[in-house]
Amino acid sequence: MRGKVLIAALALVAGTDAWVLVGVARNRTGAPDAVLELNERELGLRRGREENTGVSLYLRTSISSYGYFDLGGKDRWTSQEWFDRAKLEELGFDCSAPLDDPGALLRYRKMLPKEVFAVAEFGGGAWDDWRAAGEEHLAGLLDEFEAGRIEEREYRTAVRRFARAAKARSRLILIDAGTDPESLRKKYPERDRYLILPAVARLIPYDGWDDGEERKVARLEGRISDILVSDIHVPLRHRPVLDTLPPSGDEEGSPYGRIFIDEMGEETRIPMPRYAVTLKVGRRNEPWIDAIRPLEPGETE
Amino acid sequence: MTDRQDPKPPTRNKGDAQRRADQIAAFRAELDQLQREGVMILSLDQQREVETHHAAVLEQLRGLFDVDTTTAEKQMSWGMRIASFIGALAFSAAIFLFFFRFWGLLGTPAQVGILVAGPLLALAGTEFAARRERTLYLAALIGLVAIACFVLNLSVLGTIFNIRPTQNAFLAWSAFAFLLAYAYGVRIFLVAGILSFMGFLSATVGTWSGCYWLSFGERPENFLPAGIVLFLLPAFVPHRRLHDFPGFYRIFGLLPVFIGILILSNWGGISYLLLPAGTVEILYQVAGFLLAGLTIWAGIRWQWTGVTNLGSTFLVLFLYTKFFDWWWDWMPKYLFFLLLGAIAVLLLVVLRRLRGRPVGGAA
Fold first, then answer.
1. How does pLDDT run across A76-120, given as a tens digit for each residue?
2. Which among A178, B74, B139, B143 counts the fewest CB atoms within 10 Å?
3. Which residues 176-215 on chain B approach chain A with CB closer than 8 angstroms?
4. How many CB pairs under 8 A join A and B?
């Protein structure tokens, strides 16, 4: 009896591992779903500490760790303006309760997140829109500064932050979400421009004041709170480039740092990327690193 | 003089063997007492026969299951169990940390090879230890390490190949732990299996509401169906060989139910129920008291000692939590604790009266 049970345990381990590895092979064989060359702006380096020799690259999209899209210092959700009530309903959130119903807010606040697929656009129209919005925001701040409504420090800080973000920020911007990756790929067919990745979406009931509004507004918004596979393991064969990286552009004296000087002569250090990564995404929408190459200082300018 | 029969065939597991050994020790002590009080005197021949029979049975049980026959041996066994558990934790931590210390220096085939080989080798080690040592303390240690290796196996494969996480890993881990538990009759494997299965069931229940599986912990109600399933499992799966296993299903099935209700009775805002937090808390407080009472009754009715103790513990917890909510802010602190003490005395009186009612033998 014990012998049979032990054989079953052995078979369980072997079978489970075989299942996992077959799944990996299925993901990586055939034509990949997406192939992009990203760089350090989109794939930041994460090293383990002394007790962990593993290295990974973490995927940065337009969600920062605090959930806002840095736009000259102003907290905004503009990168996910597309995530409205209609999109929430499309993803399976029940948005039928009217917001003026007293119990609706409780119901919406209690909704748990859902697993979806998010579409990230690389350096395309969404990035151009972000830059245009940033420049417009700065122009508005300049008017306010000249009218004496804000201090010079606030304006200068916004200018420096935008200059840094425009050169150093990730160019991957989330532009859509859905439940079926194949439908999303049909909608966004360019495999060298759009990544479709598993993600977690949340419903956020907004109940507050919008800019310029005199009374409270209530609406439902969505947010992609996490990309599920954002820490991408670096296999040993790709480590040599990362293990011999020169100092980051933020460090004094690094050839990968660029100095931005504003009209008042104040300097801001802007880091340039040190490596480029060919990232592939397979049929199960799980990514892997295909190649890493070093970048020359200024190669991406 | 009756014909003496050969000692009965040995019991099938260590638990039953230890109960028989304890029974013999208790019989000897009581017989001594009765003889000293002059209530019952056995003849020398009878005493010799009983003693010879018991000695043969104990010899057989010691030989097959290494049971404890004295208090000192029992205490030593407890020490060995604790040492085995701590050793397993330490070895498991060492394996995890060792792997993470060196895995970055290995290519992918080597990483996969080590991860796959780990649990298989540990499993072989468990069987080897079980054949060499009857007490199974060493086998339990190595078996726990095997379970830890399997956890490391699936976790790190997921990291290496950037696989989207799912709750199915919990199912695989629980199946592995259950197989070891039933192969060797070791309870710590069973506990590992139950806890992992609880994770799988709770996460799956969470996904039924359409949520992302990792969010299952945000709603304690997700643990309730899983706990009930585990509690009821022994009723549908008879354990003819491993008689102490059903008790563990019952205890570890009830535990998440009680903990979930305790949490919801204090933080109603995290419930699925679309009611104000205060209302939810009241509902779950009432449910908690009812469940605790029902559990105590069931434990007494079916002689499930552990279940009775668990119900009593949580009854006291629910009571004291309520007292804290009602009195802590406004009552002088000395009076608060004085009242708690008085209520504890009252509980003792009530339980003593319940205890005084005739009941059957222990389960």
1. 444 467 888 999 999 999 999 888 887 888 889 889 999 999 999
2. B74
3. 176, 179-180, 182-184, 206, 209-213, 215
4. 123
User: Which residue in the set A5, A112, A236 is minimally distant from B182, CB to CB?
Assistant: A5
Point out which residues pair with A196 in neighbouring strands: A119
The SS3 call for residue A217 is strand
This prediction's pTM? 0.85
Least confident of A62-66, A230-234, B85-89, B319-323: A62-66
CA pair distance B124, A229, nearest whole angstrom: 34
Cβ–Cβ under 8 Å, residues A150 and A144:
yes
- What burial letters (b/e) apply to A9-26, b meaning 16+ CB within 10 Å? bbebbeebbeebeebbee
In terms of residues, how long is chain B? 363
Closest Cα partner for A157 from A264, A41, A271?
A264
Residues of A in contact with B190 (CB under 8 A): none
Query: What tens digit of pLDDT does each residue of B241-270 get?
Result: 888 899 999 999 999 999 999 999 999 999
Contact between B161 and A55 using a beta-carbon 8 Å cutoff: no
User: B170 touching A, CB under 8 A?
Assistant: no
For residues B93 and B108, give the distance between their C-alpha atoms in angstroms, rounded to a whole number: 22
A244-261 confidence digits (pLDDT tens): 999 888 888 888 988 888
Q: Please state, in angstroms and rounded to a whole number, the distance separating the CA atoms of residues B351 and B300.
A: 12
